[in-house]
Amino acid sequence: MSLVMPEPYAGVLARRSEIVRALRAIVPGEGVIDDPDALRAYESDGLTAYRQPPMVAVLPETTDQVAAILRWCHAQGVRVVPRGAGTSLSGGALPLVDAVLVGMARFNRMLDIDYADRLAVVQPGVTNLAVTRAVEDRGFYYAPDPSSQIACTIGGNVAENSGGVHCLKYGLTTNNVLGVEIVLMDGEIIRLGGRQLDSAGLDLLGVVVGSEGLLGIVTEVTVRILPKPEGARALLIGFPSVESGGQCVADVIAAGIIPAGMEMMDRLAIHAAEAFVEVGYPLDVEALLIVELDGVTAECDHLTGEVAAIARANGATTLRLSADEAERVAFWAGRKAAFPAVGRVSPDYYCMDGTIPRRRLPEVLERMRELSEQYGLGLANVFHAGDGNLHPLILYDANVPGELDRAEAFGADILRLCVAVGGVLTGEHGVGVEKRDLMPEMFSETDLRQQQGLKCAFDPKSLLNPGKVFPMLHRCAELGRMHVHRGATPFPDLPRF
């Protein structure tokens, strides 16, 4: 399937040498990369089906350097694509042939940790897991924990509003970010939010988190840190069918129980994960549910009993309760390694991301199984069951002509199904280029124009990460054009200003 991206500016490409010189004046030393072979490292993010080396990559170290880069590019009409660790699975960091790629890997310092106010100030290149590592000796942690947390960075988490296995109880990135410093496309540096719980005025912080690099480049993030709960117990529950496991999920939530995490894997994912990490997953079940309860010890003991009773009522065939912290961590090790584990059983896989109402889980899983047979491609299901965030892994071989096209068509049908049952196109991976052309499935033309109007308020020249999120590749100047029909404007009696 061909991906249509904005046409490159011929005038910009002709000035490549001038652009490289200007960037080297801003970021001296080895901070500017223009060698074609070296640029291959930046040609894609985690969605490797699409590749395009950037015109040039620049690795700033300070906020002032980021501001100077954007200010110069804005004045010269040069496009910019921000990049964190490159773990995005939606193509959000896919370069453009005529764009400057701004890599934020050198912004990797912890700036402040305030245990009294329960917050940490970090640069965007700090990895997700590093935040927890920095505060765990004092009994704190950072709650959002994507499966890629060892590699993904806080800046990328902010861009995609990442979640993780504990997002059901503790929220996504947006619920755990208190403030950001962000550089706009014209080089202006602004701060949104801060150390306080809530800021006055418009919720621009809420707009920036999840904006996928379309509004500015984040250079500092203030995150919430939480004290570790007194105790945590995990249940490993096997079911004879994916549908019975899905019904158990719905019944747990309906009972008013909010686990710290509730994840499910189907048979293919279970076998792949067990072969990869060998943590003792049962191999004679069709679905495996991991449910973690945390809080005071008495609460954990009570709730694990409640969940176990609900699981048995739904036909659970195996049920194990973690005996200690090491076993609880082992239960999660397989789930966290599920994506790379599936990579061992298929030459390629296409990782999807969509969210549905929990009560529709059994029927959606059944329909996905039918689509798997229809397209003739394998499917492994790994998902955040508690909040209905599905991560189907479509198995294919890129060396077989037409299989990638079938995988993309299969994935598009899964996302259409999510919307049709009352869900949304993404839960945490973002829209990027992967879901861009499916946005009309969920939003009307009016909705999309309003969203792009917000983008244009921040970036009137559409220079920042163009070609992402919005399916209509037109510029901001075209967005507000008035429709004239047979020489007449709408409502001609109204004064025009």
TrEMBL record:
Transmembrane segments annotated in the record for this chain: none
Keyword Electron transport: no
UniProt keyword Oxidoreductase, yes or no: yes
InterPro entries: FAD-bd_oxidored_4_C, FAD-bd_PCMH, FAD-bd_PCMH-like_sf, FAD-bd_PCMH_sub2, FAD-linked_Oxase-like_C, FAD-linked_OxidoTrans_Type4, Oxid_FAD_bind_N, Vanillyl_alc_oxidase_C-sub2
Keywords: FAD, Flavoprotein, Oxidoreductase
Gene Ontology molecular function terms on file: FAD binding; oxidoreductase activity
Cofactor(s) required, per the database record: FAD
FAD-binding PCMH-type domain ranges (all copies): 50-228
One Pfam family here: FAD-oxidase_C
Protein known as: FAD-binding protein
Biological source species: Sphingomonas tagetis
